[in-house]
Design goal:
This protein is 17% helix and 30% strand. It is an alpha+beta fold. A hairpin with a 2-residue loop joins strand 24 (393-399) and strand 25 (402-408). It starts with 9 loop residues before the first strand and ends in a 12-residue tail after the last helix. Residues 1-56 have low confidence and may be disordered. GO terms for molecular function: 2 iron, 2 sulfur cluster binding; metal ion binding; oxidoreductase activity, acting on NAD(P)H. One of its GO terms (cellular component) is mitochondrion. InterPro entries: FAD-oxidoreductase/Apoptosis, FAD/NAD-bd_sf, FAD/NAD-binding_dom, FAD/NAD-linked_Rdtase_dimer_sf, Reductase_C, Rieske_2Fe-2S, Rieske_2Fe-2S_sf.
Amino acid sequence: FWVIPAVEVKIEVVIPEKERSKEEMSPNGKASPLIYKVNGTARHYHLEEHPIASNPYHNPKDVVEASVCHVKDLENGQMREVDLGCGKALLIKESGEFHAVGHKCPHYGAPLVKGVLSKGRVRCPWHGACFNIGTGDIEDFPGLDSLPRFQVKIEKEKVYIRASKQTLQTQRRTKMMAKCISLSNYNLSSTNVLIIGAGAAGLVCAETLRQEGFSDRIVMCTMDRHLPYDRPKLSKSMDSHPEQIALRPKEFFCTYDIEVLTEMQVAAVDVKSKIAVFKDGFKMEYNKLLIATGNTPKTLSCKGKEMENVFNIRTPEDANRVVKLATSKNVVIVGASFLGMEVAAYLAERAHSVSLVELEHVPFKKFFGERVGRAVMKMFENNRVKFYMQTEVSELREQEGKLKEVVLKSGKVLRADVCVVGVGAVPATGFLKQSGINIDSKGFIVVNKMMQTNIPGVFAAGDAVTFPLALRNNKKVNVPHWQMAHMHGRVAALNMLAHGTEISTVPYLWTAMFGKSIRYAGHGEGFDDVVIQGDLDELKFVAFYTKSDEVVAVASMNYDPIVSKVAEVLAAGRTIRKRDVDTVVFLSFRTGDMSWLTGKGT
């Protein structure tokens, strides 16, 4: 909200080093920069030297000063978005102290003033990322950047802010990172850290290593042709081009000496010799290994599955091609998965018709429950999506080499110019079968709380792993979601450096359909009841998923920031009982009272 003119608060912005006019290039200025022979023992730590100037504002004309409020205008536990004329900041008061940071989440730009403040951090109301209010550092994900931190100064009971205009406009900060310093005695086929997979887990692992001062060689390899990109947008924003959804620009990888080998597939890993063997025969020795290969989409088993215009969406090119072919045409989507439903929503206004085929009788039944699933299904039907439930595809028929019809086992024949398959996925771990790395019966890599496998020096992260979830009494679970992959990568990196860090994050995910989002926190697998507050017909609700009287997960639509608030409760180690749901909703949503977040226990 806006500041009352009669009172004053002043904030001073600390300009992060990334705001220098031009970042230094990597010593060799190339994308695959520094290659050296690993000796297996040396560990180098070398952060860039940044002298501290007495005046951090190099250009006085870039500085803005504004008074924003009196010290008594904010109570403890309150946040206020303040306007400095050329940009905004988030002013926070906690335990009697004032803090000021960027006001927008660097992930997708959510207003943090609508988020959740608890015990020294603010949680994004949209997707659950968490930031330290004292440093601005990101502490939970999704997203890669931290918040800019602004110096707060109090004089004569007024709070003052002094800010760089440029910093106020960027609203994000990349943490300081090391560079590779081993410029000599190198070997093309040797690296200290090898990361197989260039998704969120792999990239966060590499960035965390650099942030922690690790300055040896890091190599990421991926079957994809692109640098790491925002994969959830493949189904949520299907016409996005690769450069639009890149997580980092090419220059970033050059600057911080993170090598990315694209279109490179690992065929086998020899853990005894510490060698990864690529499909083309190339071999690379490593000291530490992270396996973050994600999953592989399941395909149809019926006749015609290899036909043209039948897609599993794995790349930006796949998504772009589907949008182009589907415009004003007939689309059939097989599987009411997150991917299938998001694709259906995205194409509904573009295609002539959208039909969705699903084996269950209600979408999302196993994940969100039948009542929420029916409400979502009704929303889709109101947007011209036709459902064919409790049936499967028996055949895909072609005409002149292209898809023409989808035949269902029920006997129904659907006109189809494009077919998108979203029937689930399996972990991409087939290349590890003879490696000695522990793989469970479903193909998932088994890791401990530090993301370590049973092989010393070998870590795994992301969609391809099962790990102990603290929230569910350390039950081994698979959580194939974007936020969790980020955290896996960070924990793996810290433990490569022997920090002894254990994962304890609360799973958080979201789905977007027809301009509306369902947010979800916790792990509801095996829930036995759903307690719903709000109005499902109006698509304004919060659903609490319980097991044996304990709330294990929560989902909401148009009820922000309830999911982020419950996530903070669960992160604090507290238990919410079924009988407490009414009180939780009343205190957190209707009154805004957050005092119930403090402490542990029930």
